[in-house]
Amino acid sequence: MRLAIVGTGTVGSSVAQLAGDYGHTVTAMANVEAATIDSGGIDVEAALERQHEGERHLGEDDPEDALEADYDVLVEATPVTLGDAQPGFGHLERALQLDRHVVLANKGPMAERYGEVMDLAEQSAGEVRFEATVGGAIPVLSTIEDYGPETITAARGVLNGTANFILSRMASAGLGYEHVLAEAQDLGVAETDPSFDVEGTDAALKCVILANVLAEGDREYTLEDAAVEGIKDIPESALELAQEDGRTIRLIGEVAGGEIRVGPRLVPEHSELAVTGTTNIVQLETENAGRLNLSGRGAGGPETATAMLADVGRLPPL
Length: 318
Known about the structure:
The protein has about 325 residues and is of the alpha/beta class. The protein folds into two domains: about 1-135 and about 300-315, Rossmann fold; about 140-295, 2-Layer Sandwich (Dihydrodipicolinate Reductase, domain 2). It is built from 13 helices and twelve strands. The strands form two sheets. It has a six-stranded mixed sheet, with helices on both faces. A six-stranded mixed sheet has the order 8-10-9-7-11-12. Helix 8 (about 160-175) packs across helix 9 (about 175-185). The mean pLDDT is about 95.
C-alpha cells in the first residue's frame, strides 16, 4: 500500500519508519508547516532528519497537497481535538471523498463525529479503520470485530498509562499525587500539562469510541455522554486504607448498559485490573466466551504504529 502520513509526531514518525518492514511505501508526509511528496516513495529517514531541524524543514510541499497526493491509505496521526475534531475530521473527509482508505490514531473524529464518519465511509470506496484509537498496541477493536459487537455485553478497563503510573506508584511507594506527578513528568510518562490524562478525558474518549462500536449505529455517543472523574483529588491515605483491605485504586473506564463511566475505583490488589506502571488492560464481557482480558502497552510510538500498520494490512486493494 502507498501511505500518506499526516501528523509526523511520535506516532506518525514511527509509522513512517516501520512502513517498509510491512511492505508499504510512504509517498507523502505532512506536519502543520510543510510536507514532502514523492509518488515513487520518499526517503523517510532523510525527511525526519530535516524535520528534526524544525517542522518547516520536513519538505518543500504544502501540507494540504499531501491529501491530494498518490496514496492508497491516509494515516491520520494529528493531535486529538475535541468538539468539531478538526483538522483530523477534515483530513479524513477529503481522503474518503477521493475514495482512499483512512487509518486513524486520532481519537477525535471517532469520539466526537462517529456518525458522520460512518456516513462518509458508506459513500466512499475507501474504508476507515481505527484500532490505534483504543489501547495503543492492544487489539481491542479487532477482537470485538472478530467476535461480533452484538456478542459483547460490556467493556471496562485501565485505559490511560499516565494515570495508571501515578496511581500504582503512589500505592507502591507511599507517595503523594504531586510528588509522583513530578516524577512522571521527569520520566516523560506525563506531559507538562497532564490534565488530559489525569482528569480522565483520554480514557473517556476511548470509552466513547468503544460505546459507538458496540452500539453498531443504534445510537451515537460523544464525550458529553460520559460521566468522568479524574485522579487529582485522591489522597495518599485513600490508597493506604485500600491496601489494608487487600485492594488498590485504579482509574477505570466502563461501557455497559448504554452508559459510559470513568473514575477511580477500588479493585482487588491482585486482580487483572490492578495492572501497574503504564500497562493498559481491557476486559470484554461476552455472551458466549466469558470474560476476555486484553492487556499490553497502551501508548508509545512503535506500539501505536504497530496497531495502525495492522489496520493497513486489513484493508482491501482499491
